[in-house]
Each structure stands twice: as structure tokens, then as C-alpha cells.
Amino acid sequence: MKFDKKHRPQTLNDVIFADVDVKQTLNEYANNQRDKHLLLYGPKGTGKSVSAQLVLKERMGVNWQAGLGDPWNAAAYQAKYDSFEPALKQWNLQHSMGSDMGCSVFDELDQFTLPMQHKLRAFIDQCEIGTIIATTNNLHLIDGPLKDRFRPLFVEYPSVEQWVPRVVSVMEAESIPITAAQAAGLLKGFEGSGRKLDDWMEDLVFRLKRFMTQVTTPPTQPCAQTINGSGK
């Protein structure tokens, strides 16, 4: 299994957020306390997509099962569909499984063309039995009236200090226990996204495991000839 898939967050509590208010808002959506359509925006690799999918999963609770809430990429969706009937079908299926409100995730919402964004706005206005959670790295490319239908929530990069618990957790899962202080030291100089952090941790795991193997491997025993001189 790929390293990033193996250590993918399983709940919202596993996701590291820079802002506690962002985490609180997402938890309120996950607990079905908020229903206005949600638009997560910010730089790449801040956990927007995985957070959107986890919110949907936790909203559905015991009704969750694979296939009930698969996310859509906007560009791929538009290449296949010219309406939002599939989203409505997804909501109706979720209702039939016991959910109070339907929910769909659309990644990279800005990749919808302007006419498709207009169709989404009309769909939102006509159908009130579900919530859309969308993500974008380019908020400025979202049509203004469509943007007004969403609650925009800015998601930014966590600080190095905020990444420490994730590093500790992943290292422990790889059977490399380290302290928070050691993790902070290893993170010194790191900058970038969660995706870059996954690559960084994967490299670190391989280096440490190679080192541990070298330390624990016993030296090769010299042959009899070396010991006795002549070998006789």
C-alpha cells in the first residue's frame, strides 16, 4: 500500500489544522449542526479534499458505506455529465439509507466552466434536500453568485509545531517510536504542504529503518583461515 494511503487520516480528529476555528466548524458540519453548502479554499496540500470526504462520512454515521458518498472531481464530472441529476440521485440514495440530509463532495470546483457553475447555482436553489461540500485552490475563479450560496472557509498550512503530533503518530505506526521533542527536531527546516510532509516522512522512515538494520545486524564471523593463520 502506498505510504500516503496507508497513513491517510481516518477521522477529522486525525487531520491537522492551522486554525482551531476551522476544525470546530468542520466538526459542526460533521455532526449535522450546519447545512449551508461549504466551500473549502486555500493552497494545495492543506487537507481540504480529505477533510471534505471525512465530513461527509461522519455526517452519514452508521449509514455510511462505500459508494454512497464518492467524491467528484469537477472537470471529470463535467466531461461525463451536463446536469446535476447524478448528485440528486446520490442524495436520494443517502435518504433511502436513513440520512436526514444528502451530501456530495466536489473537488476543484473552479474547474467547472462558467455555464456549469450557473447550472450548479440553479440546482442549489431548486433542491434543498442536500448539502454540497466543495474545494478549490482558486477562489477567484468561482462565480460570485455561486460563491454566495456557500460558506467559504479558508484552510491554510499548519506550522511546523502543529505537524509534530502527526509525525509522532506516523512514526509509531511504522514501529519507530519518537518523542514530540525529537519530532520537532526532525521537522526543523521543513516547509510545505501535507503531501510534501508525507514524502518527507516516507524518506525518513526508509533512512531510519536502514540505519536500524545496520545497527542490529551482527558482524560476519571471520573464516578459520583468518583465525588460525594457515587454516590448518
Overall description:
This protein is α/β, with parallel strands linked by helices and 232 residues long. The protein folds into two domains: 138 residues, Rossmann fold (3-Layer(aba) Sandwich), CATH 3.40.50.300; 56 residues. The protein has eleven helices and five strands. Strands 2-3-4-1-5 form a five-stranded parallel beta sheet. Helix 6 links the parallel strand 3 and strand 4. The protein starts with a helix and ends with a helix. The C terminus is likely disordered.
Q: Just give the CATH class of the largest domain.
A: Alpha Beta
Helix tally equals: 11
Question: What does the main sheet amount to?
Answer: 5 strands, parallel
**SSE order, one letter for each helix or strand:** HHEHEHHEHEHEHHHH
Shape: elongated
Number of domains: 2
> Strand sequence of the main sheet, in spatial order?
2-3-4-1-5
Query: Architecture of the largest domain, CATH level 2?
Result: 3-Layer(aba) Sandwich
Structural class: alpha/beta
Question: Segments where pLDDT lies below 50 for 5+ residues?
Answer: 223-232
Helices and strands in order, then pairings?
Layout: H1 3-6, H2 20-30, E1 37-41, H3 48-60, E2 72-73, H4 74-80, H5 85-96, E3 102-107, H6 114-126, E4 130-136, H7 144-148, E5 150-154, H8 160-173, H9 180-186, H10 194-216, H11 224-228
Helix pairs in contact: 2-3, 8-9
Give structural attributes.
disordered C terminus; five-stranded parallel β-sheet; 11% strand; 2 domains; 232 residues; Rossmann fold; alpha/beta; 5 strands
